[in-house]
Amino acid sequence: MTIIDLGNTGVAARSRNLRGYLAEPAGTGPFPAALMIHEAFGLNDIARRQADRLAAAGYLTLAVDLFSDGGTRRCLVATMRSLRSGSGKAFADLAAGRAWLKQSGRINDKIGVIGFCMGGGFALLIANDGFDAAAVNYGRLPRNPEEALRGACPVVGNFGKADRTLPGGAAKLGAALQTLGVEHDIKEFDGAGHAFMNDAEEGPRPLRPLFRVMGIKPDPDAAAEAWQRIEDHFARHLKD
Predict the structure, then answer these.
(1) Hey, which of 80, 91, 130, 176 would disulfide with 145, CB 3.0 to 4.6 Å?
(2) CA gap 167, 190 in Å, rounded
């Protein structure tokens, strides 16, 4: 597992010091690939373990660090602004990550995109930009989903019914994809809240009791099923 420099992919307008975490499957390949997009807390240990899990399932996984040019504190606001507007440096960073995978010579030409929380919102917005499958985990919907998701690749989505930050998100996403005729499998897990696929609590320690009240906490049982749904979806669309 390696931190790599993403500065030589030929993509303009990216972060100057763009880097990512590469998780590699066993064997020689070629592999199906996954571009992973982290939560608002950045490319931390939880995110790296999520990338490692995808690699163990057989995917060359690149988690792009959207906060490469200054860390979470300096980059979060600009990245969230990019997510809301649907444009900006974060999208160039993700394009550079995909370009690196394509230029690596190690993939089977199939690339999926997967995101969590903030990253799930980004995954939705680029699901119609040349990817073969998308996994969206409690990601916020675009303001105009039927416009933003037109032409999207097949989508699997995992949401928590107890997630107070995204009320009705699963139903709204499913309805939009149904209207557009996009293949999808969206599930809302009873009792699970936001960030339920994390394997540990995260965020500033003083705020964690508040996060729990808001339903932001791990749920190992729901996470196990969600991961299986992702692996089944990616296997169907990315593996030869």
Answers:
(1) 176
(2) 13
* Global pTM value: 0.94
The type of residue at 174 is G
Per-residue pLDDT of the chain (240 residues; tens, 9 = 90+): 689 899 888 898 788 999 999 999 999 989 999 999 999 999 999 999 999 999 999 999 999 999 998 877 788 888 999 999 999 999 999 999 999 999 999 999 999 999 999 999 999 999 999 999 999 999 999 999 999 999 999 999 999 999 989 999 999 999 999 999 999 999 999 999 999 999 998 776 776 776 776 778 999 999 999 999 999 999 999 997
Complete edge-to-edge strand list for the sheet that includes strand 31-37: 2-5, 19-23, 60-64, 31-37, 107-116, 133-137, 155-160, 184-189
Looking up tokens 């200054």 gives: 70
**Alpha helices (H) along the chain:** 45-56, 71-85, 89-103, 118-125, 145-148, 169-180, 208-213, 220-238
